[in-house]
Fold these 2 entries.
Entry 1:
Amino acid sequence: MGREDRKRPATLRTIAQSAGVDVSTVSRVLNGSPEDAARAASRETADAIREWAARLDYRPNPHAKSLRTQRSNLVGVLVPRLSDVVLATIYEGIEDAAARHGFATFVMNSHDRPDEQRARTELALSRRVDGLVFGDAHHDGGFVDEIAQRRIPFVLVSRHAGGHPSVTCDDYRGGRLVAAHFLERGHRRTAVIAGEPFASTGIDRTAGFVDRYREEGLDVATVHSRFDTAGGHQAAEQLLTEVEPTAIFAVNDFAAIGALGAVRDARLRPGADVAVAGFNDTPLAAELPVPLTSVRSPMHEMGRRALELLMTVLDGGTPESQRLEPELIVRASTARP
Amino acid sequence: MGREDRKRPATLRTIAQSAGVDVSTVSRVLNGSPEDAARAASRETADAIREWAARLDYRPNPHAKSLRTQRSNLVGVLVPRLSDVVLATIYEGIEDAAARHGFATFVMNSHDRPDEQRARTELALSRRVDGLVFGDAHHDGGFVDEIAQRRIPFVLVSRHAGGHPSVTCDDYRGGRLVAAHFLERGHRRTAVIAGEPFASTGIDRTAGFVDRYREEGLDVATVHSRFDTAGGHQAAEQLLTEVEPTAIFAVNDFAAIGALGAVRDARLRPGADVAVAGFNDTPLAAELPVPLTSVRSPMHEMGRRALELLMTVLDGGTPESQRLEPELIVRASTARP
DNA sequence: CTGAAAGCGCTTACAG
DNA sequence: CTGAAAGCGCTTACAG
């Protein structure tokens, strides 16, 4: 089954010979714009060419095309971890939109480590991507600033940084929604599991929550954490002993699930004794033993729009950052008994 | 920030001119095998060439190379859904291994739909991938048989089909492990949430479980389901009313989580009243309010090995299918009180 | 040790 | 409406 056994695919030349015309004519008819095609050959010649192409199962060689046009129709996508369902879903949106534009994508994990971000980006660049989508931007913005300076087309998704074009959820507003909900339920001693300090998602969600509480003259305890369940568990344990909050907002569903575990371990009832809310409304949130209140963010849509925004950049347009609306989904984890 | 602004990258010709040698010499030194390089130029010439390459930040143009060599160093990967953490983790293994071999990967979702499998495969082929990894093979094997007939290099991962080269978990054995555990705990009326009927994973896990129980002269109720939480919830609801099992094996953690929800909704205590076990030992399993007993499968390793197996195929070797060992992780969801 | 030449499969001014 | 030619950036027999 070695690769030598497969017979060579049809090329423009094959078709040109079959149809008795020049390759340039075939190119214009098959791969050119409709106007090009119309100008390039008579109806009959064009039809004959198209018929041969179909019969020979012709598919343009993308490498030849890219070499000639200096455009690869490839985009590189960097995410912290693809096994995080939030990023995977955003990526699905990116991939869908890319396919519709005739682009293919390379995804890579950076694990939120600057050295890997750099290495993966260079790898993508050496593969000659036309542009990049970063789902792993750090708020300090050092790395993306550098990419911008090199005039490499890119957009950010999920997290914003340094004023570069981005598509995000309105995380600040999402944080406020949770705070408003907690206030309505009468919680006055609350805490936030704020995630990693370098991610604008965690920063903004926390800020929105804290600001809303400040408006009521109330302070909020905050603690940073990893974005996963173990991180949330650990952070919640600490908060439960040091702060004894009646409600906890974790800036991410996984951290929230970890927090639920910590609440249970402390012999408290999630929802009844300690309210817990998460963010993103991951598919699991609704199915947990104690269903989780969470802020729904349009993950797939965010990915789709980020890719569209990149297309704007590639077409030389002026990209406008977008902030999509979050929606609070209330469930048992924040219901008083 | 249009693409026109970036200055042209260095090429072999740029370097050849700078170093005062022919492009063919530069090619042999920079991109050839070590022996080629040694034979192509004197130490000094070679060093000079390498120095110029570094100074000009030379990166071989992959499109030119692919066009010339008829090899793309690209592989296509098809999965049912990348937002399923199991497939995402397998894909991470594939991607890691691919990068080490100098290959890049395209991933695409097929949603387990034959028309999408076909369309995505053709898309990958039109992008001139050297080979494919299918994580979404259907057990009937119709589609992959066809691909094999076309002599397209490919391997299967996670699911096997039609005797084609594959890397899977020993799912049958995994099913037996769960059965043995349930038997040891004294469960005699049990049920399996078997997943989709077209996936070898669910088929084999179910068969292993059922066979072990048959050896004790006991029958097992089985019901098919989707692989997600909602599917598991629904299947468990049905089983709880119709079969009243004391233990349920769901062939996948998400279905198991859905089953836990159904158990709770029926006012039964997971673990105490009804044991529930899952499969894959997803990161969440350990962190659930009632930690989930699950069969750990080496997902990342499976992906890695699948890619290695594809490399064997591409090198004209004889690929041998592999079945990796599962491991039972016992937690509270199957502990008697 | 080194070079000159051909060609992979396209696109696109240029010419008629 | 159609063609001939050049060239994108590589690799690799062939020749010396």
Entry 2:
Amino acid sequence: MTKKNIPRPTESELEILQVLWQQGPSTVRFVNDELSKRRDVGYTTTLKLLQLMHEKGIVTRDDSSRTHVYRAALREQETQGMLIDRLLDAAFGGSALKLVQQALGNRQTSREELDQIRNLLDSIDNQNPTTDPDELA
Amino acid sequence: MTKKNIPRPTESELEILQVLWQQGPSTVRFVNDELSKRRDVGYTTTLKLLQLMHEKGIVTRDDSSRTHVYRAALREQETQGMLIDRLLDAAFGGSALKLVQQALGNRQTSREELDQIRNLLDSIDNQNPTTDPDELA
DNA sequence: TGTTTGTTACGAAACGTTTCGTAACGACGC
DNA sequence: GCGTCGTTACGAAACGTTTCGTAACAAACA
């Protein structure tokens, strides 16, 4: 029962979720202004999207005042993990290794980021001694 | 002009592409049998999908004999890279680091795979000495 | 030849996503 | 009070995806 009934946000919905994750609870106007920085989008389009997301339970809203305030109902990390699972299954035959190789391969990554990944690998090693610990020696 | 006019396969289309990538050029019947291992899907559904993919240029087909043979027109790696770019933009604010952390974090990964990733990191380091090469010693 | 079997072609329904036009409504300034 | 402005609500169109029923057709076979 670890997997809950997580909604599957569409691409447009993800765009909005990113605004809410990064900027916190926001009005329709604010979200629309943020989206408008990237592309043309009508105000009522953003409004409708948020209303649909509200119906789906993807966002909650505070409608105590006239201009409603929307808030992400999905946690960023959980959602990202779900999306990776989807992509893993849809295009990588379930191999996380291949995905990571692709993500790092044809992409310029800074030394700092590479180091952070190394640290992550080390911490996984320590937490999870799957095979003979001798091998590390 | 590095970016071509790459089609964006849907989820169902990716399912079929995976079959063609792994099994090579295949008939509708074969693809449908493969898909049927995972879920219920009608023969004409698979056929129609392949026909649409053909129109879109996602697959090519040899119709010299009565039963046509379909072949992936997209390379696996290119497509995977494109999908990662999409996901990166759609949900990770463009940070490949965050994506990799997510992919490795809440997932059990074998020591062997971790080592392969380490090798990949090392090879990236060698190819791309952004900072002091001394650090590697 | 006539029947069965497996194939392609085609149309359409069902559904979800995205977009926007229009209307109603409250707040605010004049 | 009245008009303006920003907001929400609602309906619908346009579009893409997915699914499947039906028909046409060719090959194999009895």
